[in-house]
Amino acid sequence: MLKPFYNCFLEAGTDEAGRGCLAGPVTAAAVILPEGFEHALLNDSKKVSEAHRKELAFLIRESAISYGIAHVSHTTIDRINILNASIEAMHQALDQLQPRPLAIAVDGNRFKPYGKIPHQCLVRGDGRFMNIAAASILAKTSRDDLMRALDKEFPEYHWARNKGYPTQAHRDALLKYGPTPHHRKSFRLKEEQLKINY
Q1: pLDDT 10s digits, 92-139
Q2: Total number of domains in the chain
Q3: Would 5 be classed as within a structural domain?
Q4: 107 a known binding residue?
C-alpha cells in the first residue's frame, strides 16, 4: 500500500516525465491529495497500463485538494540541461498549487529548494508514496497527450507510440529525415547533463 511521506496535511508530491526523451518537453506535476486518499491501482506510472493511467488521471484531478502540471520546452532543456529543466518543471507545477503545500516529497535524488518549504528527495518515490505516484500519473498522461498531438504534425517519428523516447523507429526516422523543430538538439548523455546550475 502506498502512503504519504511526511504524513502531514497539505503535503505535495512531485514527479516528472520525459526526461529520457529525444523530442518534446519535460513535464512535471505536483499533487496535494486529501487525507485518507487511496486507490488500488495508484502506482508509478511506468507500472500502470495506459487505460488505467487515464482512469487514475481523471480520478486524481477530481479528488486532489490541488494539482499543477507544467511543461518545460525542448529549447529550455537545450539551454539549461535536462536535470535543471526537470527541476524547473517541478517548481512551475508547485507554483500552481493553492493552498500552498507545507512539505514536498520529490521523486528522485536531486532537487533545488522551493522557497522555505521543506522537501525530501525519495529515490523510486513514485512506487512508494501516494502523492508522488499521483504526480507521476498526471505528468505522464499530460505529456503523452501532448506528444500524440505533435505526432499529427510529424507522423514519421511515431510519437503517438514512442512519446519521443529513443526507440528504434524513432532513431531510424532521425537518420532518414533529420531532427524536427521539437527535437532536443543538444540532448546527449554527458557530464553536463548531471549538473545543477544555481
Answers
A1: 999 999 999 999 999 999 999 999 999 999 999 888 999 999 999 999
A2: 1
A3: no
A4: yes
